[in-house]
């Protein structure tokens, strides 16, 4: 690898800061950072403000929200992370993706992560998140990560089994992501 950094963008669908969802994602980012060079950005959908929440369509967003949307669309790897509320991802998380260009995520690697109150919420990965990104024709990587409330002390992930799943899962897709970093075109400064 020539040292090209993978541009990773996390779309955080949790209303809480700090959150268990970002506690899980932080472990993923730490392990991924040990495998390949990367630059990380984060979009907290609940912090985008009225220029986001009041937007019905892409033409209605403020310049700051437009920049967040473009950041997600231009990522080498998108990490879509959401807590489970009432069996699915939160509405603000979905609203963000309602504003993303329909073809901007085509063939883009997307890694799914979710947290929930119990293990039964893990189904959100396959029955809600994966179909959402299938609509965009995104390349959702075969591994996805879930942790339930009992796996945390506050927002710190403690369960060693989940650490092991993350390590093995990232190792399985590391070559795909390395190839993505080396083939990404350089982005001009805006």
UniProtKB/TrEMBL annotation:
Lineage: Bacteria, Bacillati, Actinomycetota, Actinomycetes, Streptosporangiales
Key words, A-Z: Flavoprotein, FMN, Oxidoreductase
Domain of life: Bacteria
Domain NADPH-dependent FMN reductase-like residues, every copy: 7-149
Organism the protein comes from: Nonomuraea terrae
InterPro entries: Flavoprotein-like_sf (IPR029039), FMN_Rdtase-like_dom (IPR005025), NAD(P)H-dep_FMN_reductase (IPR051814)
Entry keyword annotation includes Ribosomal protein: no
The protein's name: FMN reductase
UniProt keyword annotation of Flavoprotein present: yes
A molecular-function term among this protein's GO annotations: oxidoreductase activity
């Amino acid at each position: 690898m020539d040292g090209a950094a993978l541009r990773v963008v996390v779309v955080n669908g949790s209303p809480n800061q700090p959150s268990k969802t970002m506690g899980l994602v932080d472990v993923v980012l730490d392990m991924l950072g040990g495998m390949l060079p990367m630059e990380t950005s984060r979009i907290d959908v609940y912090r985008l403000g009225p220029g986001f929440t009041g937007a019905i369509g892409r033409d209605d967003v403020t310049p700051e929200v437009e920049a967040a949307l473009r950041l997600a669309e231009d990522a080498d790897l998108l990490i879509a992370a959401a807590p489970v509320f009432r069996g699915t991802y939160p509405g603000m998380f979905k609203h963000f993706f309602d504003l993303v260009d329909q073809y901007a995520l085509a063939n883009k690697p997307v890694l799914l992560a979710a947290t929930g109150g119990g293990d039964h919420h893990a189904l959100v990965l396959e029955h809600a998140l994966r179909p959402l990104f299938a609509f965009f024709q995104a390349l959702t990587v075969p591994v996805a990560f879930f942790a339930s409330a009992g796996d945390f002390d506050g927002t710190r992930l403690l369960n060693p089994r989940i650490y092991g799943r993350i390590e093995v899962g990232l190792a399985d897709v590391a070559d795909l992501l390395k190839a993505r970093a080396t083939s990404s075109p350089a982005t001009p400064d805006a």
